[in-house]
Amino acid sequence: MSRGIITALFAIGLAQFLKIPLKQVKSKKRSWEAIFQSGGMPSSHSAGVASLATYTGLRLGMRKLDFALAVIFGLIVMYDAQGIRRYAGETSMKVNELEEKVERLAGESTGNYHDKKEKRLKEQLGHQPEEVAVGAILGIIIGTFSYLFSRRRKFIFN
């Protein structure tokens, strides 16, 4: 597997893992489920694409087509993560609230409608801009370290 892929997967995994202690600080309880959830701090989408672009740029050069593709791909992913996906999550919250209001108006409310329902719409899909920025910074750091580590190994073993 290429070092670029390993770098990006590591960045995604680390960003997802960091959601556990960050969520614990915020909610005062540990939630291991956070590692499998989308949204939240930091953005693993941003960390993955930023690490790949950084590693590619350092390894091949900033003027190469590979770097340009990685940067444009990364910008699209980050825009989508903080824009479209975030708005989809906000829409899900409104739909869930609307279902609860309709149930109350119909007089069928027992207070636990969504517990009986198969599934509420997922509300946390996207990211706030600061979550995207922190993920990108984390990715840049990981991409840089990956490049430096790969150069050091080549130097030692040659």
Automatic annotation (TrEMBL):
Instruction: Work out whether the entry's keyword set contains Secreted.
Output: no
Which top-level group of life is the source organism from?
A: Bacteria
Q: Keywords assigned by UniProt?
A: Membrane, Transmembrane, Transmembrane helix
Q: Where, by residue number, does the polypeptide cross the bilayer?
A: 65-84, 132-150
Q: What is this protein called?
A: Divergent PAP2 family protein
Q: Which organism is it from?
A: Evansella alkalicola
